[in-house]
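Predict fold of DNA-binding response regulator; 237 aa.
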Amino acid sequence: MSTGRGSGEDGIGRPIRVLLADDHHLVRTGFRVILEIEDDIEVVGEAANGERAVGMARALRPDVVLMDVEMPEVDGLEATRRISLDADQPGPAVLILTTFDRDDYLFAALRAGASGFLLKNGTPEALVEAIRVVARGDGLLAPELTRRVIATFARPGGPTGAGVDPAAALRHLTPREREVLVLVAGGASNAEIATALHLGEATVKSHVSRVLAKLELRDRVQAVVFAYEQGVVRPGG
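Predicted 3D structure, encoded as tokens:
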């Protein structure tokens, strides 16, 4: 399954360092086998519970933590929160991979700072690509989960709240940056945004980075949540 990609193609100039966190040894072994045949991915450690995952994330400084949800001692959601809030160092991207297709897990993972959320019924190819996506700083949700995020924010009483004063943060966006935020919330890629706004992809990437910085958001997944929470975009709008 190796793609033959070079180690620099994901923007970090070396293999992507991955920490596996799952309480089932056979599952971790399976993930390791899938990932280590890729030229641009290196598995640097394994953790059998959330407490161990937090400690190993601090010690090993991986680029991505592949995190299960239901684990003993400390679950994956709390471990994700601790990793994301670690003030001692920039935290790795956390990719949640779970058997449980539950909205409460999905939203709790996003609140905790996860950069992606996938179900274990996906393909090995999808897992490998998801790791590459979050490693280069983009957020990722399976398409069916994105639809549920949008549907949930369309309902009265859906999830609310933000890490910054939303009105003040939005006032700091330029008109162009607000356009970019709307398109990101609609699921558009950088290439699609470039086409829609008649810009170069490098310019779009810079706009996206500035939007995330001004809104104090980690990645595009959090930008989608923020935009729907604050009514910047609405389903069908």
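The first strand starts at residue 16 and ends at 21.
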